[in-house]
Amino acid sequence: MDKTYLVIGDVQLVLAASLLLINIIISVVLQLGLGKQLWMAGIRSVVQLLLIGYVLEWVFTLEQPPLILLVGLIMTIMAGVSSVQRTRRRFDGIYFNSILSILASTALITGITITGIIQVNPWYDPQYLIPLLGMVLGNALTGITLAIDRFMDDLTTGRDRIEAMLTLGATRWEAAHDSIRMALRTGMIPTINSMMVMGIVSLPGMMTGQILAGARPTDAVRYQIIILFAIAAATALASIGGILLAFLRLFSTTHQLRLDRLRRLP
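RESULT FIELD:
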């Protein structure tokens, strides 16, 4: 393809922002009370995206691996913190657990994808590393949030059943096995649903962006397939990692359920 992408100007951004009026009008007519939240969300998203645009322009000029890895580490920490802030229950160490799970899973999968599959040279090329890491982090964040939240809810609502199993001699793993399995399933559902309809109902963001930038659709599809499987693997690893660390915290080594370590947010 010889086509180049069309540059979006300020007037076009304003016209796009006016589409938010549809949401606000619906909120006013149906008295949903979401007008202020919609405006705030719109303004915040625009500011954040414009800022990250300038940041990425700077990042893409970097040729020093330590600085690029530092940017990736900051992104990972923010993802770990955000995943906990979306949960309804907390326990001591949950932030560390979330950051560790996301860091380990995304570093492993992103590293394999960059060096072993796409074979980027040099491996730290920010044009490839940062966008790929961002897409993997965004999905891993959602997965670990849903998984940990479901696990803590399951332990709370199924407390009597779990404690009865422990009383009858079950190990902590045997008592928590069903909760762990259902939590992992919950964390993976959004990724699986997305994979099921991709290319038929929806066109993924990365693929669409490459096509708009002038890439051949067949080339864009190949990149999207790689990203898709990388996201699925990282989400699964992050979810199971977060669940297992929560399991070790909420069950003692003497096979007792320690819900006293769990607190619900007001």
